[in-house]
Design brief:
69% helix
Length: 208
């Protein structure tokens, strides 16, 4: 059923890469049972690298999404620049998955792009950016994390899932940096969140 839905969505007559990308996706989903199949799948994707980069700009939204999904699977530094272009287009789907890959691959060069993504309208992108910065213990993320935390306390964060994510990642960043002074202002906030209506938010407040 999913294949039929995808093929229907890919029927955009302006798409240049729909058929080729669809075939690559089908192989990637089928060839993942054994180490040999996964290796062959990687070889197939690497051989189609230039095609996938071009497909990130295809007229069809689904084609762009599938191309990004395939590039994500490579987890290669070659994908950093094209995926950065992809995630910066708010019209593209599933950008959060690509942000997580970029955070994993990019090292220090991804610091500024991730900081910028903390203000993205998509909660998945914001969460992925927070995850990458927190896991690396990025000191420059302290202030924007504190701002995000304050929005949660003020009930200004509209996405319920993101409220939990903010509580989780600010706790991790504080542990990574081991800088109690910078996070002193969160102590009262976490006390407040211990009575939050969301059990996941309460969980991280209790662990903070």
């Amino acid at each position: 059923a999913l294949k039929l839905i995808r093929n229907d969505e890919m029927s955009n007559e302006n798409s240049q890469y729909a058929k080729q990308i669809s075939e690559l996706v089908d192989k990637a989903r089928a060839w993942r049972d054994s180490k040999e199949q996964r290796l062959q799948n990687r070889i197939n994707i690497e051989a189609s690298f230039d095609l996938l980069v071009h497909a990130l700009h295809d007229a069809d939204l689904q084609v762009r999404w599938d191309a990004a999904w395939l590039l994500n699977r490579l987890e290669s530094e070659r994908t950093i620049e094209p995926l950065l272009v992809y995630v910066r287009n708010p019209e593209n789907r599933n950008r959060g998955g690509s942000v997580r890959i970029l955070a994993k691959l990019g090292g220090a060069r991804m610091r500024q792009p991730l900081l910028e993504m903390l203000h993205d309208p998509d909660a998945n992108v914001r969460s992925a950016a927070m995850s990458g910065l927190a896991r690396r213990g990025e000191a420059s993320a302290v202030e924007p994390f504190l701002q995000a935390f304050q929005r949660v306390l003020n009930n200004e964060e509209e996405d319920a899932w993101m409220r939990y994510e903010v509580a989780m990642w600010i706790r991790l960043l504080s542990e990574k940096l081991n800088d109690k002074a910078s996070f002193a202002s969160t102590i009262e906030g976490f006390e407040q969140l211990k009575n939050d209506g969301d059990p996941l938010v309460r969980k991280h407040a209790l662990r903070a």
